[in-house]
Amino acid sequence: MPEAVATPARKSWIDKLKAGLRKTGASIATVFTGTQIDDALYEDLEAALLMADTGVKATEHLLQDLKRRVKDSKTTDPAAVKGLLVESLTSLLTPLQKPLLIGRFKPTVIMVAGVNGAGKTTSIGKLTRHLATSNASVLLAAADTFRAAAREQLGVWADRTAVDIISQDGGDPAAVAFDAVSAGKARGRDVVLVDTAGRLPTQLHLMEELKKIKRVVQKTGPCNDNANLSSSTEASSLPPHEVLLVIDGNTGQNALTQVKAFDDALGLTGLIVTKLDGTAKGGVLAAIARERPIPVYFIGVGEKLEDLETFNAREFSQALLS
Asked: How does it sit in the membrane (predicted)?
């Protein structure tokens, strides 16, 4: 498959991604410095992949696929095996590569969840900027009413990205979300982004609060379907149209546990993977691809507004194993 020519901005991003994944990639790359392809190489690779939090299922899949590729290509050079692993990993991750589509529904309502410390509110700010660069008008909903600092933080992002925000002191998170979606419809906004309180999936009462937000948002009624597809039903136009989970790339297998728990509770449509800079656990995306293949819309490798980019399976694989 021919590689797309990267723009200077994208090339700069890929360089950041390589730097961010260096800890993960270095431990895997040392496996291919030997002189022969033998059982020891595969055993070392298995250990390196598991240490990178690729997970047992994804590791087994990658090893089997890699051995097949080595056999089919009659490769004898261990260094060349790394290139085949890039192909194998790209193939595994490709189902996660899917763009976030805005525009069919007006407004497109996006609900964002995540545990405390995953970078959820910051990611919403970055996502707002990303949408604004596509000329989409955004309204923010500060439905994390449990934490005053969260409203303030979201307010800062709203100011920096010059968008409106719906918030209230204390109050019911679901009511804030309902008001924001109603306002988004009335004001003709393209997107309504709903921030929610950070929580652990083991905090069942808080997970129930998330489910309540989703149910109450649906009560605002169908959004305008710009596509006017004959096959569309009223249910498909009910908000939220996207339910995103923000996960910290440094948490490895714990991130996979979060994906499963939040997906079971809310029916996730996409992921944002943050804090991939300096992680030794970058293999977790392979684990997600194998065990709960929910699209990864964006990945992040820094704190700046522009440090959130669309996920590309080949770029990620090459950066990881560069």
From this structure: Peripheral membrane protein
